[in-house]
Give the backbone structure.
Amino acid sequence: MIMKKNFGDSISNKVYEYRVLARLSQKELADKVGVTKQTIFVMEKGHYIPSMLLAFRIANFFDVNVTDIFTYLKGNDEDDQ
């Protein structure tokens, strides 16, 4: 069995901030981008990393660049330790 390397990378997001500024409920945003309210909820809590397609849909909805909402957080490469 081949084990995948764990880099510890993550993605932070500002979905909550953009949603609140737009005066949208989680359900309203979810409907606009084609996901469930639960998906928006867990994404805002940082427990879900969206697919690239969903990240682009959200950014497009708010008319901003993906990197304005989503930030890549580099982890530690196991080989670097």
